C-alpha cells in the first residue's frame, strides 16, 4: 500500500474511532487546530505520564513545574524570539500557495534518499542472502550518482541556512527545478522571513494595554524560574526541571494532520550543568531519550538521529530523534546543548543575578543547559503510525487494529457479555464495577461478539474478557489477546492481577532503568 494511502487511512481512522477531530468542525473547521476525542485524550494522557514518570520518578535530580502561558513580553526579547523566531517562506504565483522554503528543499533531498532506497531494495531482492548492502551502496553507479547529487545540494542548503541567505535558498529551489505541488509550476516569489509568534493585548484600557505573546515554547518558563526552583528545592547541579504545557505558533504552512499545528503541547526538560560538562550530558540525554522511544517496541529501525545542519544561535550541539512516519522520517524530539545563553540573557535583560554557587568549586557561575524537547502531538502521531495495521483474515476479511503498547492503550480491558440475557450482562456489569478502579475498562454488549472484537481492535484495546454461560458455572472468563487473537480461560479472581501486570507503567520504566 502506498504511504500516502496509509496516511489518509490513519487520519480517517482517528476521526472514526474518536481519537482526533477537526476543531470547530460544525463551523467548517479551523485550519491546523485539532481536538482530541474520547480515545485520543486517554492515549495522550498516557503518553504524558510515561514521559513525566521517566523524567521525574526515575531521576532524583529532576523536578517539575507548571509555568503560565502568558509571560512578561521582555522575556521574548531576551530569548531572541521577537527578533529571530522566523520561518523562510516562499509563494507560488500561480497557485497562490505559501510554503516553507527549507521544507521544499528537504522534501527534494528526501527524493534522492527514496531513489537510493529503491535501488537497494531491488538489489537485496535479486541477490538474497548473499547481498552486501554496504558494498552495494559504495560501488553501484546509480546509487553513487544520486548520492553525489544529494550531497551537493545538501551542502549548498546547509550553507544557505547557516548564512541566513534567502537568495541562495530561492536559487536552490530554482536550480533543482522544484515545482509547486498544487500548480506544478516553478513560478516562485522571493523568500521572506515570517515571525511565528501570536500576540495579544493585556489590560483593561486601550491606552494602558500591554502587548503580550502566547508562548511559542515552554522552555522560557523554566529558565525564569531557575532560581525559584533551585533555592526552594535546595537543588545541586547537575539537576533538571521538567514541564508539560501548551505552546502556540502561527504556522503559515501547517500540514500533515497533527504533525504541524498552531496550538500544540510540549514535554520539555532543561538540565542545568557546570560549564564544560554540557557535551557529555548532551550525549547522556541523547542516548536516554532514544532508549525511551525504542522501549515502546516499534523497532529500532523506525528511529534515527538527525544532526542539525544549522545550529540555533544559542546552541553548540543539537540533534533530532526522527521517527519513520507514513510521509518519511520526521522529527519528534530535539536534544540541544543551549550553553549559558538563556540564563545569561535573562540576567542581562532583568538586571537580576541568575547564578549558581557551586560549593565544590567555591565560586558562582551561570549554568549551562542541555534540553530535551518533545512534541506530545507528534509523539501521538508516531505511536498511531507505528501501531496501525491491516490484516487479511482467512475469509478475505480485512482486520484493522492498533497494536498500541498495552501501557499506553486508552482502554486496557473490554468486558463483553456473550449475550444480553440469562444473567450474563449482570455478571459482566459486576466484573466491570470491580475492575474499573484498577485500570480503564469499557463495557460493550451491542452487536455480535465478532463485531465487538473488531471495534476493540480498532481502538487498540489489548485484552477482551468475554462472559459466557460457563462463567456462571465456574467463575471463569475467556481472555482474548488483541495482537494474536488467541484466547485462554482464566478465573475472575485472577483477572485484575493478570491485566494489571501486563499494562502497568512499570513495565516500560524498568526498561529505562537498566
Task: Describe the structure in your own words.
The chain is α+β, with helices and mostly antiparallel strands. It has three domains: 1-75 and 196-392, BirA Bifunctional Protein, domain 2, CATH 3.30.930; 86-194, Herpes Virus-1; 401-513, Anticodon-binding domain (Rossmann fold, 3-Layer(aba) Sandwich), CATH 3.40.50.800. It starts with a helix and ends with a helix. The mean pLDDT is 91.
Give a short summary of the structure:
Helix 5 runs antiparallel to helix 7 and helix 7 (141-162) packs antiparallel against helix 8. This protein has 18 helices and 23 strands.
List keywords for this structure.
seven-stranded mixed beta sheet, 514 residues, BirA Bifunctional Protein, domain 2, 41% helix, single chain, five-stranded mixed beta sheet, Herpes Virus-1, 24% strand, alpha+beta, Rossmann fold, 23 strands
Write the layout of secondary structure elements.
Blueprint: H1 3-16, E1 20-22, E2 34-36, H2 38-57, E3 62-64, H3 74-79, H4 81-84, E4 86-91, E5 98-100, H5 101-127, H6 133-139, H7 141-162, H8 166-175, E6 192-195, E7 199-202, E8 210-213, H9 219-223, H10 226-232, E9 239-248, E10 263-273, H11 278-294, E11 303-307, E12 317-325, E13 328-339, H12 341-350, E14 356-358, E15 363-365, E16 368-375, H13 376-387, E17 388-392, E18 398-402, E19 413-417, H14 424-435, E20 441-443, H15 449-459, E21 463-467, H16 469-474, E22 476-481, E23 487-491, H17 492-503, H18 506-513
Parallel strand pairs: 3-9, 19-20, 19-21
Antiparallel strand pairs: 1-2, 4-5, 4-6, 7-8, 9-10, 10-16, 11-12, 12-13, 13-16, 14-15, 17-18, 21-22, 22-23
Helix pairs in contact: 2-13, 5-7, 5-8, 7-8
